[in-house]
Amino acid sequence: MERDRGLDRRALAAFAGTFGGRVVLPSDPEYDQARVVWNAIFDRYPACIAQCASVPDVIAALRFAREQELTIAVRGGGHSAAGFSTCNGGMVLDLRPIQAVSVDTGAGTARVGAGAHLSQLDEATQAARLACPVGVIGHTGVAGLTLGGGMGRLQRKYGLTIDSLLDVELVTADGRVVRADEKENAELFWGLRGAGANFGIVTSFRFRLHPVGPAVVQGVMVYPLERARELAALFRDLVAAAPDELMMSLEFRIATQYPPYSPGMAGRPVVLIEVTYCGLLERSERYVRPLKAAGPMLDTVQPRSYLAVQTRKDEMLTWGHRFYMKNAFFSRITDEIVDLCATRLCDAPGTCAVGFMAQGGAIARVDEDATAFTGRDAAFWCAVETVWDEPTRDGAHIEWGRGTMAALKPFTSRGHYVNDVIEAGQDVVRSIYGDEKYRRLVALKQAWDPGNVFRLNHNILPVQAS
Ligand SMILES: Cc1cc2nc3c(=O)[nH]c(=O)nc-3n(C[C@H](O)[C@H](O)[C@H](O)COP(=O)(O)OP(=O)(O)OC[C@H]3O[C@@H](n4cnc5c(N)ncnc54)[C@H](O)[C@@H]3O)c2cc1C
């Protein structure tokens, strides 16, 4: 750990003197708060945190970090499960102060600062009954989520977040400000949509918005784990017949002490089916009826404001816990897979889950090669997740996560969702994108960041690894 890496004091003073944001150093009282990221495993000590308030600040911070040969960690919302938005001894280039969201209701678009989190985008757009499809936890950063893809409750109706991305403004490794969209720097725009942390610092995003809400039908049905096969079959049937407006996920999990579970359920292995219906409310009943008829122990499905839905799980996955996950895509959920999940859950060391989110709909209508994101053609995306608090239990939880995905691996299809990959290395990165897209990304990296300035990410090397 390089807690007090010596910075050139004169250069630092010159940089801080012109910087419009705040430079936080280890000696500052706010340092310990400023260095925290969402996943408590990554307790790191940067030499300096540059809290940028504007695009010129980003350029100045980048120039200073490069001159001082500091490792650069770019931070949007700080939720990288792999801890990429912090480092020991380098510079955290923190974009959180750049968080303005401006909605153009006439054009049906929103311009979003790179430090905004999802709730800010949702709140600004819902004021006009519009929404951009984003993730399911309000405190996640728009930037990191978008640059990796962006999955969520509206994905079958409106696609991934990147499918609504119109353009970005970014600062390049050599300090230029460029724009990328389908026409201008189109190849860069392709790579930014799935491998976006690699090519520059995005300072703002412009999204297409869609009519949503203000109410949707949403909630969960919870059943005993002993009925896993029967519920998985019902889930499969409902997904197969679902309209795009219906988003569903199936989870095998250990119930927590947080809502929607009652205190008596905490620690119990359960099957959970979550539904979100974003069409005409009165039409939802037919899709929800079979799940209700299956006799859940707990049923929270009802009309709610879309805004309330989007923050319902915020407390359950709040900042400061330790977290590990693995993910993969699946073309089907067979009984064998269900049995495997149930068995693994019975050996869980604590709060653990294996969840399957339905894809299809708008996601599948975009060509697999249209963006760097890989895995659109799969029917389901699967996440193996575990959360705990005591550092002494790291081994047990991480081992459970790895063991569970290792058992599921024979059933997976191509690709991984980059935003939820924790392990690093070139083999891992190739497995995320596949060899063909990886080659294309290497060429892009050579063009935009040949010195690999932006390397705290699932790193595309600017040279082809043998
Ligand atoms: C609680 C929780 C819930 C989640 N839910 C969802 C979900 O529903 N759907 C989903 O798709 N994903 C979800 N994710 C995964 C999430 O998309 C990723 O963790 C994402 O990277 C978070 O973005 P961030 O800006 O908060 O993270 P950060 O840690 O700030 O950044 C993540 C990566 O992006 C880079 N980066 C950040 N900002 C920029 C920028 N402006 N320019 C260039 N690079 C940048 C960072 O350097 C880092 O490599 C969730 C994660 C968590 C922890």
Folded structure, characterized:
The protein starts with 8 loop residues before the first helix and ends in an 18-residue tail after the last helix. The strands form four sheets. Strands 12, 13, 14, 15, 16, 17, 18, 19 and 20 form a nine-stranded antiparallel sheet that branches. A five-stranded antiparallel sheet has the order 5-6-10-8-9. The protein has 466 residues and is of the alpha+beta class. The chain is globular, with a radius of gyration of 22 Å. The chain has helices at residues 9-18, 31-34, 55-67, 118-126, 142-148, 155-158, 186-195, 228-241, 285-293, 306-309, 335-346, 361-365, 394-408, 426-448, and strands at 22-24, 48-51, 72-75, 91-94, 101-104, 109-113, 130-131, 165-171, 177-181, 201-208, 210-211, 215-224, 246-254, 269-277, 298-299, 302-305, 322-330, 351-358, 380-388, 412-413. It is built from 14 helices and 20 strands. The model has no long low-confidence stretch (mean pLDDT 96). The site of flavin-adenine dinucleotide (FAD) has 35 residues, from strand 3, helix 5 and strand 10.
Element layout with pairings:
Layout: H1 9-18, E1 22-24, H2 31-34, E2 48-51, H3 55-67, E3 72-75, E4 91-94, E5 101-104, E6 109-113, H4 118-126, E7 130-131, H5 142-148, H6 155-158, E8 165-171, E9 177-181, H7 186-195, E10 201-208, E11 210-211, E12 215-224, H8 228-241, E13 246-254, E14 269-277, H9 285-293, E15 298-299, E16 302-305, H10 306-309, E17 322-330, H11 335-346, E18 351-358, H12 361-365, E19 380-388, H13 394-408, E20 412-413, H14 426-448
Helix pairs in contact: 7-14, 8-11, 11-13
